[in-house]
Amino acid sequence: QGAHNDAVIIDAVRREGEGARIARIPEPGACVNCRRLFLAVETGRPRIFTAAELLDNGTNVGKRAVDWRPTAWPAHPRCSCSTEHVPAGLTYDDGWELTKERAA
Fold it and tell me: What is the structure's pLDDT at 90?
């Protein structure tokens, strides 16, 4: 999973730089920690991070779960939440499908 996450992020950074938008998508049945880290509280939709933000957070190795942060690498040893590049102008709808952002 870590290699897949890295590949998605590396590709996005090559295309758009460190500001590339990345989402970590909780798997069905994801643990409470992954849901806390990767879903927006207000909407329940996947949160969108910049590649730099995820990379700057390092890993959660050796940290207590309460101190975990969203990272490029899997959040914990059995984490299989996926990673997606979110092109500019797109966001997630209530069904977690990418859709065009609406003007505010």
Answer: 96
Whether 86 contacts 12, CB under 8 Å: no
- Residue 33, both tokens: 């920690």
Contact criterion met (CB below 8 Å) for 93 and 48: no
pTM of the model: 0.91
Q: Which residue has the tokens 């999973």?
A: 1
Of 54, 55, 40, 41, give the one whose Cα is nearest residue 91: 40
Euclidean distance between CA atoms 77 and 2, whole angstroms: 10
* Phi, psi dihedrals of residue 26, rounded to the nearest 5°: -60, 135
Reduced 3-state DSSP string for the chain: CHHHHHHHHHHHHHHHCCCCEEEEECCCCCCHHHHHHHECCCCCCECEEEHHHHHHCCCCCCCCHHHCCCCCCCCCCCCCCEEEECCCCEEECCCCCEEECCCC
Report, as an integer, the average pLDDT of 77-88: 95
